[in-house]
Amino acid sequence: MKKTIALLLGAALLATAAVPALAGDALIAPLISQDTQKLDLTGREAYLENGRVMVPLRMVAEALGYTVTWDGEQSRVDLDNGVSHTYVTLGVDSYCKISSTAIGMSAPQSFGAAPVSIDGSSFVPIDLFALLGDTVVTSDGAATITSGERNVCFEIPNQSTQIPNPIEGFDTVEPAMAAAGLDIELPKLPQDYKMEAASVIGGTLFQVAYRSGDDAVTFRAALGDEDISGDYNVYSELKAVEVNGVKVELKGDGGVVNLAKWCEDGVSYSLSSEKGLSAQTVLEIIRDI
């Protein structure tokens, strides 16, 4: 927001200096940086639907470095940039983020506007890119989206708002836990696992990421009793056990546990491992929480 304000002030100073500008450039000039790609949406203009800015999916996504694939049989569009991927189905107001490198999928979200096809182009809420972890800012009839080192800008219906990233990162665990309204014990993983990041998703879901070599472990907790794991994979090995009087669901393949879920004292928990942990290790971790 500070950057946007600074750029707007710069544009105002240019205006007072009576520097001429083309009408098309004047609309989005405050949002352009040296490495920003300006998209021409002529014929595929963004529009408002139930208060959401709808944008042409393929044009915007490919400019941001996503690979876009159309599945005509399912009326579905798939996106992947090597870090995150997702899919949207025309007419279905359901959106999610899936890791391209690890096990994990966010709970489906509704934005109040389903993907649609107009003259052969698919349109989605601009919120989808924020859900995928990109930075989305709209101001004065223009939008900028930053994904990694790529920046794009384009015209949108006139409105001023900033779409927040649903994932808020924290430098330490304590403020993240407090932001989610929790006061819980962290899992004690084997010594070779190091904490990488703590975050809160949607203001309520506490998450800590750990890594050891090529294995990534994610611990999640949130108030309530819903499944907050974000893991919707189908596993061949399922088992229910009891730890400290609490029922725990174990799921995995090949003799290892990839996902454990349980609820205790009004809090829902999950522990997932990309490569899988032994059942004994998982149960020892849960027993100490």
TrEMBL record:
Residues 44-129 form the Copper amine oxidase-like N-terminal domain. This is Copper amine oxidase N-terminal domain-containing protein. InterPro entries: Cu_amine_oxidase-like_N, Mao_N_sf. It comes from the Bacteria. Residues 1-23 form the signal peptide. Keywords: Signal. The keyword Oxidoreductase does not apply. The keyword Signal applies. Pfam families: Cu_amine_oxidN1. It comes from Feifania hominis.
